[in-house]
Design brief:
Length: about 325
């Protein structure tokens, strides 16, 4: 089972094998890759076990890139676009599929070939490919949206589960981070990551089902602005912007930001900010060279006691107890 990428002159750029069916004796395969070519540089990580192939990575393009691709296998792809935009068409489905930053969907691909274009210089992507057998175990029945997708798979017709991409929620993002940062090994690592993949699939299916029943009330321009606020928060955890500051930063108003953020991500602006701060604190506390007071300071807490209280409320133990573990 292979995926091949070609340039405009039809020269083979990359050929990757997808060993989706492993024996139980081989619980997990991992591979970390760095590449540097004239057209792009980047890194990505692959994790593979029976029925599941995970690829997460970043790429920097020298200029917008358009390539052709072909594959010789059937797969269900949980697609998460974390940064960058892409446009793709396939020979079997002439309509253009576009992904913008912080969007996700589920795609069925059946021996596809086509073209894909990346329109921005930086790309951050998570793709989780599942065999149809693995995926169908978890696809609910008696739902019009899911029944339509099941019918595509049965008839071997490539397509998207949802006609409209949806926003990646903070919980989805955290599950992707959990998969990347898992430090277990062997069978225990496989059990942990498989559980995270199933949880991530559950969250995707729930959101896609709800959005299918209730369309978003905000327009595409406002969605992009709200996603830009989320991007800013994740990259500036120690900042002290007010809600008005954040709204003005992206050219919207406080009401639209509050309403749209809740609708897109299921939480408030500062609810997400605090959640991301505490998740970052947990990562920093694993470094024995950094004190609890320093972690609090780095994340913008003026009083370490306030940080300790928030940490305990979130994780059920104090920062010092977590650090000792």
């Amino acid at each position: 089972m292979n995926l091949r990428l070609y340039d405009k002159q039809n020269n083979l750029l990359i050929e990757r094998e997808y060993p989706l069916k492993l024996t139980q004796k081989e619980p997990l395969i991992e591979n970390s890759i760095q590449f540097s070519e004239h057209y792009a540089t980047g890194t990505y990580k692959e994790i593979c076990f029976n029925g599941v192939h995970i690829s997460i990575g970043t790429t920097h393009f020298e200029k917008p890139l358009s390539i052709s691709f072909d594959s010789d296998f059937k797969t269900i792809e949980m697609h998460f676009a974390l940064k960058g935009r892409s446009l793709s068409t396939t020979n079997k489905r002439k309509q253009t599929v576009e992904f913008s930053p912080y969007q996700h969907n589920i795609i069925y691909s059946d021996n596809n070939a086509g073209q894909i274009q990346w329109t921005e210089k930086d790309l951050y992507l998570c793709e989780i490919n599942l065999t149809p057998e693995f995926f169908l175990k978890y696809l609910p029945q008696d739902n019009q949206l899911f029944d339509r997708f099941h019918n595509l798979i049965t008839k071997e017709k490539s397509g998207l589960l949802s006609p409209v991409n949806q926003a990646i929620t903070p919980l989805m993002y955290q599950l992707i981070v959990d998969i990347i940062q898992c430090n277990r090994s062997g069978a225990f690592k496989r059990m942990y990551i498989e559980a995270k993949v199933i949880e991530l699939l559950l969250i995707q299916l729930e959101q896609l089902s709800l959005r299918h029943q209730k369309p978003l009330s905000i327009n595409k321009t406002d969605i992009e602005k709200i996603q830009a606020v989320k991007d800013y928060i994740i990259n500036n955890l120690d900042a002290e912007d007010s809600l008005i500051d954040l709204a003005h930063r992206v050219g919207t108003n406080e009401f639209t930001l509050k309403k749209g953020f809740k609708e897109l991500f299921g939480t408030t602006v500062f609810g997400l900010w605090n959640q991301q701060k505490l998740e970052q604190a947990k990562r920093l506390l694993t470094n024995q060279q950094i004190s609890i007071s320093e972690v609090a300071y780095l994340l913008g807490y003026k009083n370490p006691r306030h940080f300790s209280t928030a940490f305990k409320n979130k994780f059920g133990c104090s920062p010092s107890a977590f650090k000792q573990k």
